[in-house]
């Protein structure tokens, strides 16, 4: 086959190697033509020419890889299939041309699903507006505690196509089960995916510029439930996730399993007196509940877990229990789990003020969850709004705010929401978008804070106006806090 791969990023390069290794003739197209793209192109073409052992597949079966830079719109002649990277919009001219030519467009997740072997590992899928990566890593930790051979893959950063094609090769132990993080982009392009069990953690407006509407965004998230065989896990507090379960076409016998921060009903997991309990995977769910872990077992040593991380742990536990994992493994897996950086990460305590980095809170829903975790907050916010509005977020969080420091290109949108709904809260508006603005933001936040307060970086916006990504933004915050500590002590 002649397969066109759209995009030269991590997933695109992975797909190109995998498909070429299986004998396809691959053309990779990318609209960029900078140093980064040229370096990636050179690496791919060298791999195809030399048979580098770093790729997937047998060099003897490669039909070759061609890379075309500076033109991501034109469909190469003779294309039989287009495999897209997740971020390419459905309205891209390349896909319009493919539709006109009768050529299917799928994503790398779809290719991975189609290429699974007969004894392939089961997939436990996780999606949602926020919390996906944390939940998938919690799930992988629980599965490992059960003694299962597993891996966290997909949108978490490890291309799933590499894992699927590498299973059992060179004597490696095949995976028993995979914890799969799936974005709405990936689900849009994966029509054949049928998971063992899956969870939608929450739904809030995000990426609407890509999907076109909230309805379309929710529908793509809901694809993760299609064809589930054992359990569809939903958030009791988010009725939209339950509605997606009701709309899904699942295998006979597949169950709807809810998770809640309150007392669980039958077929739910929840919290009772500081314990995570299961009333879904027990013999008599009308009258019985199984203790799984203590709330304190969630990332122990990091303080009281934020409510949204308790919810993440319950969702991970539900998926693990659906796969038959014992209660003790849920507890041990949660104890062993350590959160990634920039997700409610404690940086330091200085003069009675706590500094928390939640740079990963790149939308209003994530920021709301972060703000709800603390009582008195000096909030550092702003960046690229991605079309978001901030009135509801400010209304819900106003009572917690000691002060606000605004940074970034779209900070005026947050400032205006604060003026409408929290006019008494002091606001510092930093009229600069260079990366050094973070140091000034931390200093201003420190000036506003009182002992017992939390200075919280939860921007509710994307980072690309000032930083390469949210990781760099969080690093800048942590560096500024350390500068503060070094200067004052």
What does this structure look like?
The model is unreliable at 52-62 (pLDDT under 50). The protein has helices at 10-21, 35-50, 93-100, 108-114, 132-145, 160-166, 184-188, 208-211, 214-222, 239-247, 307-322, 327-336, 364-371, 391-397, 411-421, 437-448, 470-488; strands at 2-6, 25-30, 65-69, 81-84, 104-107, 122-127, 150-154, 177-181, 197-200, 231-235, 255-259, 268-272, 275-278, 290-294, 345-350, 353-357, 377-381, 401-406, 427-429, 454-457. It is built from 17 helices and 20 strands. The protein is globular. It has a nine-stranded mixed beta sheet with strand order 7-8-6-9-10-11-12-13-14, with helices on both faces. By secondary structure, the chain is α/β, with parallel strands linked by helices. Helix 1 links the parallel strand 1 (2-6) and strand 2 (25-30). Helix 5 crosses helix 12.
Number of strands: 20
Number of helices: 17
Query: How many strands, what sense, and barrel or not for the largest sheet?
Result: 9 strands, mixed
Structural class label: alpha/beta
- Name the average pLDDT: 91
**Radius of gyration using CA atoms only:** 23 Å
Beta-strand residue fraction:
15-25%
Strand arrangement within the widest β-sheet reads 7-8-6-9-10-11-12-13-14
Low-confidence stretches: 52-62
Q: Determine the fraction of residues in helical runs and give it as a percent range.
A: 25-40%
The span between the termini is 65 Å
Shape assignment: globular
The gist of it:
The chain is of the alpha/beta class and 489 residues long. Helices cover 36% and strands 20% of the residues.
């Amino acid at each position: 086959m002649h397969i066109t791969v759209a995009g030269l990023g991590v997933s695109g390069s992975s797909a190109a190697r995998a498909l070429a290794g299986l004998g396809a003739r691959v053309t990779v197209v990318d609209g960029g033509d900078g140093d980064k793209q040229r370096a990636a192109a050179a690496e791919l073409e060298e791999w195809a020419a030399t048979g580098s052992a770093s790729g997937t597949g047998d060099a003897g079966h490669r039909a070759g890889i061609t890379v075309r830079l500076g033109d991501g719109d034109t469909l190469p002649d003779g294309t039989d299939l287009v495999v897209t990277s997740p971020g390419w919009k459905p309205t891209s001219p390349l896909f319009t041309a493919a539709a006109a030519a009768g050529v299917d467009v799928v994503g790398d997740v779809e290719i991975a699903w189609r290429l699974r072997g007969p004894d392939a590992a089961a997939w436990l899928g996780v999606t949602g507006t926020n919390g996906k990566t944390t939940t998938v890593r919690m799930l992988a930790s629980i599965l490992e505690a059960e003694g299962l051979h597993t891996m966290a893959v997909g949108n978490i950063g490890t291309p799933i196509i590499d894992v699927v094609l590498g299973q059992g090769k060179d004597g490696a132990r095949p995976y028993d089960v995979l914890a799969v993080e799936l974005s709405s982009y990936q689900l849009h392009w994966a029509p054949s995916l049928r998971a063992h069990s899956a969870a939608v953690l929450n739904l809030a407006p995000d990426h609407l510029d890509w999907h076109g509407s909230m309805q379309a965004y929710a529908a793509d998230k809901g694809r993760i439930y299609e064809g589930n065989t054992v359990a569809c896990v939903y958030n009791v507090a988010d009725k939209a996730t339950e509605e997606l379960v009701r709309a899904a076409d699942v295998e006979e016998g597949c169950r709807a399993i809810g998770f809640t921060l309150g007392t669980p009903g039958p077929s739910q997991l929840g919290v009772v007196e500081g314990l995570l309990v299961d009333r879904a995977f027990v013999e008599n769910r009308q009258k019985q509940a199984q203790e799984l872990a203590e709330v304190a077992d969630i990332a122990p040593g990091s303080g009281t877990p934020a409510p949204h991380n308790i919810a993440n742990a319950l969702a991970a536990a539900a998926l693990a229990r659906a796969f038959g994992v014992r209660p003790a493994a849920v507890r041990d897996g949660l104890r062993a789990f350590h959160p990634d950086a920039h997700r409610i990460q404690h940086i330091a305590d200085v003069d009675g003020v706590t500094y928390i980095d939640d740079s990963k809170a790149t939308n209003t829903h994530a920021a709301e969850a972060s703000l709800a975790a603390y009582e008195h907050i000096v909030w550092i916010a702003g960046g690229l709004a991605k079309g978001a509005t901030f009135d509801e977020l400010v209304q819900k969080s106003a009572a917690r705010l000691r002060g606000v420091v605004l940074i970034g290109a779209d900070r005026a949108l947050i400032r205006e929401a604060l003026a409408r709904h929290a006019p008494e809260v002091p606001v510092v508006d930093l009229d600069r978008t260079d990366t050094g603005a973070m140091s000034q933001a931390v200093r201003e936040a420190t000036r506003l804070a009182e002992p017992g307060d939390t200075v919280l970086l939860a921007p509710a916006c994307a980072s690309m106006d000032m930083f390469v990504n949210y990781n760099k933004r969080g690093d800048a915050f942590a560096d500024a806090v350390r500068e503060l500590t070094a200067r004052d002590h």
